Fold this protein.
Amino acid sequence: MKVQNSNKSFGLLFFVVFLIIGLWPLKNGDNLNAYFITISGIFLILGLINSKLLSPLNKIWIKLGEVLGIIIAPIVMFLVYFIVLTPVSLIVRLFGKDLLGLTFLKKKDSYWIKREKNLGSMNNQF
């Protein structure tokens, strides 16, 4: 993505964010928050004209996203592993299933699985 497009989308994103924050008090019947409305207007103007003034803020925002990704991704993967995969594995083991067929059977001559369905010619795969 070009820097200009990135600055434009960054400016418009923060326009929307600060506009929502500025209009949020209306939900409770309070007055507008003029400071946030003003900041949102500044971001709108800078975003529409693709100002280079947004470049440093955009770079900081991208770095923050990278740092959060480094921190949060392992935490999410840890939770998925221990909340989803571990209980499923324990349940499968409890019922004695061998889903991958990994058990070694001495009495079996071959582990080759005969295909029931003929796939046909592989000349025109795509």
User: Anything to note?
Assistant: Residues 55-94 form the longest helix (40 residues). The mean pLDDT is 88. Helices lie at 3-23, 34-48, 55-94.
